[in-house]
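We give the chain.
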Amino acid sequence: MMRSPQESLRNGVLETSTPPHHHHHQPHHFHSTVSLLKLRRFNTLILIFRFVSFCFCLASTIFMATNSLTWADFTTLRVVVAANGIVAVYSLAEMGASIWEILKGTTVLPETIQVWFDFSHDQVFAYLLVSANVAGTTMVRTLRNDGDTCSVNSSFCVQSTISISLGYVGFLFLGFSSLLSGFRVVCFIINGSRFHL
């Protein structure tokens, strides 16, 4: 009987010390778990957009680069190849950063730098990509109207058109990534964290 009250007393002490401790930490722990899940889902969405952008920009680069050698004669088409190639490499690097963040829960660079780096580079590369593709579109349209190049080498014009179209899709998904990285910047400015809690 002496042991039982001692045990219950010990339990009583434990119980008075643990529940408040539990009550203080559980909502916070639950809250942070929900936030982590949201952040993981958000990062997975960015990863998907970056992956699609990478695939289309890479395909665009390959399509144009494997085109008959004529594309190298046009500076504008060289710019299209370069822009899509650069964005493909950038998207690949950003995919790596997203995977790292999903697995580790932290950014590769310090959070402030990472948030601003992603957003600013998304903006710059989206502008570069759309400018190159618009210039390429104008160039191909001119060649079609001109008649000679496209009638002599129709596959060149077809491949160029496909390549530029793929580049536009790459730009579209880079634009989606840019919106999400912009959202992260806004959250960071407001909350001091890359995701709203």
Q: What stands out?
A: The chain has a mean pLDDT of 80. The chain has five helices and no strands. Residues 34-191 form one domain.
